[in-house]
Amino acid sequence: MRILRELLLLVLLTAGVGAGVFAVWYWWPASSSNDAQTRQHEKSLLGRAEDTFREHVREQVSLDAVRDPEVTQVTSAIQARLAPSVGHAPYAIEIFVVDSATVNAVCLPGAIIVVYSGLIRRLESPEELAAILAHESAHAVHRDAMQALKREVGMAALLSLMGGGQDALTGRLLQRLISTGFSRQQELAADKDALRVLGASGIDPGALAQALRHIKPAAGEDLRVLQYVSTHPGLDERVQLAEAAAADWDGKVLPLQLDWAAFKARFRFLR
Fold it and tell me: Is the backbone of residue 154 left (phi > 0), alpha (psi -120 to 50) or beta?
């Protein structure tokens, strides 16, 4: 699949920006008596690193993204319904759909969300897709992708990659992010935010439970293509959390007036 190939070889990062960021880190004292100031410095540096990652990730992802207006109009309509309740993301959230048999959705650095048609194949309503997008949007708001990369190698090592000339290692880090996903704590936090967003958007939070049930592998399925399952731990626990939220929700359902069958028919891998 081209998008994964490109991400593996991704990021000939801007040397000037990267070197400047690394220089700030290098001259910043290793030990600081002010923990709040230390965290603020780290947040600032991580943000600069993400600025650089974002443009390269977006450029590569867009190469394989479906441009069919009947597809993009549906994702845009769902995003518009969710947006008022999602919260403030560091970047404008962008959603790309890739026509592929892979069952996955992922939030990459820079609030870039990629959804594969293999996952859409399993969903039975636009509300279920809204639940997946609400979850990935929560990752964007929390900047989980960069936090995961920082956890892999440490802040100093991550920023050193920004100096250029280490594309292969950077690509491997992004590959690891895609293949391993986020921590259990990050996933549960994203679920809780997603359930809040769904309820505030007039969508029954139970849509997340339904989506997760439909993504769950059947007996004998090839787990290699079920990336969303392998990178999201505790599926049953997450279903129970969503069901509990749905039972407590007393809002009014506002159906997404979208032709789900027509939407799914646009994908080659769903035929």
Answer: left
